[in-house]
């Protein structure tokens, strides 16, 4: 028996109040996954509320989720935040997908000196809609009840950093240190705060951007003897940070 997570939209989940599924979600459940009456279904709103539900099918392209008693899932006490230099379309989408699967709480796309992912300013709203759609799918796949907040792209200096937090960045610089050395030496510095992970665009942050990151308390970490793509570095560093919390 399979178990499927279904996104119910931004509205409130109320016991026995039908939630219409959008056409794409209904098609995916009915025609691709071929959900049947024995499968377990969980409705989620992306803000931590979930409910077991049953599916009512109107036709081949339309369905409703009928929720049971809603419950509030416990949010992580210490949260993951990703500061990600803008990458090109497919790479950035993969970063949003994997970060969501790892339970990231916020994604801050960064407008860096080395590029903005090939988009002009007027394209950001379209890209944000696409990222949100990908994050919803990743939540469904990973059974993550919390949809990450994906902010509009901004400059590094505009992002607030929480106190007593783990602050690490992937670096190609000669002054970077291995994760194990950093974790062994400085573990006591982040026993109560969130984790902030900074990953630059292809080619890394510039020297001036790294200067700004260091003033914000970020440590430069090397992840491999070679050079990782930005999307690979993001996944590795997020996974390490999650294990450290």
Task: Please tell me about this protein's structure.
- 30% of the residues lie in helices and 24% in strands.
- It has 245 residues and is α/β, with parallel strands linked by helices.
- A seven-stranded parallel beta sheet has the order 9-8-7-12-10-13-11, sandwiched between helices. Strands 1, 2, 3, 4, 5 and 6 form a six-stranded mixed beta sheet that branches.
- β3 (40-44) and β4 form a beta hairpin.
- α2 (89-101) packs parallel to α3 (124-142) and α2 packs parallel to α6.
- The model has no long low-confidence stretch (mean pLDDT 87).
For the structure shown, list the relevant keywords.
alpha/beta, 245 residues, six-stranded mixed β-sheet, Alpha/beta knot, 30% helix, 13 strands, seven-stranded parallel β-sheet
Q: How does the SSE layout of this entry go?
A:
Layout: E1 3-7, E2 19-20, H1 23-32, E3 40-44, E4 49-59, E5 62-67, E6 71-72, E7 80-85, H2 89-101, E8 106-110, H3 124-142, E9 149-150, E10 166-170, E11 177-178, H4 179-186, E12 195-199, H5 207-215, E13 219-222, H6 230-244
Parallel strand pairs: 1-3, 7-8, 7-12, 8-9, 10-12, 10-13, 11-13
Antiparallel strand pairs: 2-5, 3-4, 4-5, 4-6
Helix pairs in contact: 2-3, 2-6
């Amino acid at each position: 028996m399979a178990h499927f997570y279904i996104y119910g939209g931004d509205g409130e989940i109320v016991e026995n109040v039908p939630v219409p599924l959008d056409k794409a979600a209904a098609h995916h459940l009915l025609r691709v996954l071929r959900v049947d009456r024995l499968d377990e279904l969980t409705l989620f709103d992306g803000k931590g509320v979930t409910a077991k539900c049953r599916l009512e099918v109107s036709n081949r392209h339309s369905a409703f989720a009928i929720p049971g008693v809603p419950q509030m899932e416990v949010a992580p006490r210490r949260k993951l935040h990703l500061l990600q230099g803008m990458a090109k379309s497919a790479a950035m989408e993969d970063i949003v997908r994997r970060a969501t699967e790892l339970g990231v709480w916020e994604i801050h796309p960064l407008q860096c000196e080395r590029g903005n992912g090939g988009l002009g300013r007027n394209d950001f709203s379209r890209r944000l809609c696409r990222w949100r759609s990908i994050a919803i799918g990743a939540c469904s796949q990973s059974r993550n009840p919390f949809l990450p907040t994906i902010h509009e792209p901004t400059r590094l200096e505009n992002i607030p950093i929480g106190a007593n937090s783990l602050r690490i960045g992937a670096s190609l610089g000669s002054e970077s240190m291995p994760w194990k050395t950093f974790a062994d030496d400085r573990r006591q510095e982040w026993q109560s705060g969130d984790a902030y992970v900074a990953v630059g665009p292809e080619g890394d942050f510039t020297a001036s951007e790294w200067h700004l990151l260091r003033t914000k308390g970020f440590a430069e970490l090397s992840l491999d003897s070679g050079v990782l793509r930005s999307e690979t570095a993001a996944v590795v560093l997020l996974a390490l940070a999650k294990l450290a919390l």
